[in-house]
Amino acid sequence: MLDIKAIRENPEAVEAQLRRRDPEISLASVLAADTLRRELLGEEEQLRARQNSVGPEMARKKKAGEDTVELTAEMSAIKARIQELADLRRAADEALDAALLDLPNLPHESVPASPDKHDNQVIRTFGAKPEFDFEPRHHVALAESLGLLDFERGAKAAGSGWPCYRGMGARLEWALINFCIARGIADGFEHIMPPLAVNAAVMTSAGVLPKFADQVYHAQRDELYLIPTAEIVLTGLFGDEIIDAADLPMKLMAYTPCFRREAGAHGAGERGLIRVHQFNKTERYILCQPEDSYDQLEALTGQVEAMVNELGLHFVTTLLVTGDIAQQAAKTYDVEVWLPGQQAYLEVSSASNCEAYQARRGRMRYRPEADPSAGGKPSKPEFVHTLNGSALATSRLMAAILETNQQADGSVVVPPALRPYMDGIEVIAPRE
Known about the structure:
The chain is an alpha+beta fold. The protein contains twelve helices and 16 strands. The strands form four sheets. Strands 1-9-10-11-14-8-7-2 form an eight-stranded mixed β-sheet. Helix 5 (139-146) packs across helix 12 (394-404).
């Protein structure tokens, strides 16, 4: 959520920044709701001031034997109007909150302005595209011939888009998860095992609700939502808290299954593991002081690049344009691996700085160290900055590993980085 004070003080500048994301964005509804709210509040304060002044006046008149009928009638009218104003202001508050919740984050000045994701900028390239002396196969064909995935039985149990890993496929997936967890611990992240469902308030603070309600699974009976990413639940862990500055940066990591409705049509290029309703992901999440957040973003992106590089995959890192960053993000880097079977780059990690957008929604603050010049008086709490990064999402990563490491005989070589988590298995061979 954006700061209403900043909008109020310089609406033209804020709107100009937002229009770098979407030329059609307008602050008119926010400003109208804010103006009405302040007008109602002003009238209410004036009436309450009049209420407070009547007591002594009433006592004086009674003592003097004067008539108080008019004052009594006035107080009754003021009381009724204050109640009416309270109802009107509640509606205005709700309108203002709704208008603010609909706004995306302000893009950082370094983010290129474009509505077209094809304008995303490749800033780094790692490795070279693998070459084959045979026609590389799609990961679906490889997985089915090697008995790694059973899409048919997954669909039987839950419908299309719900993959079922089997045998060596399940072991390779589990190896990927363990690899991600181990690297996260080595990079100094605290390992969290959080709930897989959250309430509406947490979904709102993370930036999913109300705008993207159609993309998440909602258990209406219990008013809970299955998490589309661990970023959501990690955001919720520290809502309505004030964190000591000495505890920042706070680096958290969670492995979770992720659930997404993925509403809308899907093309042939998104079959198999490319776009599914359930997938595994290890998410890294950072809470830090504002002045540190962009250094943390660069460090987080570098950590992800090191992981993908260790898996021996060719990939690029891209800086997303304003029209492609998520609602809550101010700046985002994507890491996109090359899939030989599809001749395409696909995202396996997205690292974002959300600045204070989520923190303001979730009221996540920290207390800066006391200023000695203020006589040791505690500092006023400020909003933390939050960052998140997939490290890594395994579904597309699995597809890239299978397609990159396939052999002419239909086998797949296990990346050396994963072999310690697979009892040293080096090759997954076709079933006889």
